[in-house]
């Protein structure tokens, strides 16, 4: 806690906390600024992964090319092509196993999950999303995992984006929240199957990522 000079009463002692927690829905929280001190380390790790497994714009089963570029690390990588969505051990681009999940990633995911009430989270999959201005992620559910009792931990880096969190039905009206660099979303339990998406990225600048936004999504796939 900050020390205050005795001539000014410390009226606000304890009221300004960083990081802090915002609850955006039942069983869905944003740990604001939780990863802020690790931004540079995380971005360096992303660059290392992308050297081995480059970002690519994958195809959806419907035949569209996603505006968000993706790569993966960890035991399981999430992929999509015209035959569907799935988790697989290898990068379809190279045929090689996905790069290992860096310790800085695993530690962050576990600490964030613990902070949100999910101790013992051990992700085996990390999807890395890269948004350029204009990129977006339509409303979807994350349902390709095996065990829906496991939470999802999602880390935002770079340019801010508007995240939409709806309900269990696509038509449920979403709530919008702005995610800035270092914010970590953790959800599970009753929110685990909620529809969610990211609005078109607005032009912006971040000192470490330029015009880009990155998102790390940690999951237990199997
Ligand atoms: C993104 N996130 O923030 C996309 N999914 O770029 C997701 O699709 C997501 O943030 C499940 C849980 C948290 C998420
Ligand atoms: Fe998702």
Give the secondary structure arrangement, pairings included:
Blueprint: E1 20-25, E2 28-32, H1 39-52, E3 69-73, E4 77-81, E5 84-88, H2 103-115, E6 125-131, E7 137-140, E8 152-158, E9 161-165, E10 175-179, E11 184-187, E12 196-198, E13 213-219
Antiparallel strand pairs: 1-2, 2-11, 3-6, 4-5, 6-13, 7-12, 8-11, 8-13, 9-10, 9-12
Bound molecules: N-[(3-hydroxypyridin-2-yl)carbonyl]glycine and fe (iii) ion.
Residues 140, 142, 196 line the site of fe (iii) ion (FE).
Please characterize this protein's 3D structure.
By secondary structure, the chain is mainly beta. The chain has one domain: Sandwich (Jelly Rolls). The protein is built from two helices and 13 strands, in the order ββαβββαββββββββ. It has a seven-stranded antiparallel β-sheet with strand order 1-2-11-8-13-6-3, covered by helices on one side. β4 and β5 (84-88) form a beta hairpin. The longest helix is centred in the first third of the chain and has 14 residues, at 39-52. The radius of gyration is 18 Å and the shape is globular.
């Amino acid at each position: 806690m900050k020390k205050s000079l005795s001539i000014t009463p410390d009226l606000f002692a304890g009221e300004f906390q960083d990081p802090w927690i915002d609850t955006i829905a039942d069983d869905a929280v944003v740990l604001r600024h939780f990863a802020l001190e690790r931004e540079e380390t995380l971005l360096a790790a992303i660059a290392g992964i992308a050297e081995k497994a480059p970002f690519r714009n994958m195809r959806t089963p419907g035949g569209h090319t996603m505006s968000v570029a993706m790569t993966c690390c960890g035991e399981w990588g999430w992929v999509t092509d015209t035959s569907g969505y799935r988790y697989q051990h290898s990068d379809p681009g190279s045929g090689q196993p996905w790069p290992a999940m860096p310790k800085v990633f695993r530690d962050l995911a576990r600490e964030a999950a613990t902070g949100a009430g999910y101790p013992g989270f051990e992700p085996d999959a990390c999807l890395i999303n890269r948004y350029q201005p204009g990129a977006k992620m339509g409303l979807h559910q994350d349902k390709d995992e095996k065990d829906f009792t496991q939470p999802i931990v999602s880390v935002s880096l770079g340019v801010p984006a508007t995240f939409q969190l709806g309900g269990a039905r696509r038509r449920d009206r979403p709530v919008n929240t702005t995610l800035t660099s270092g914010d970590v979303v953790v959800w599970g339990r009753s929110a685990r199957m909620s529809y969610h998406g990211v609005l078109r990225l607005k032009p912006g600048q971040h000192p470490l990522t330029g015009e880009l936004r990155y998102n790390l999504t940690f999951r237990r796939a199997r």
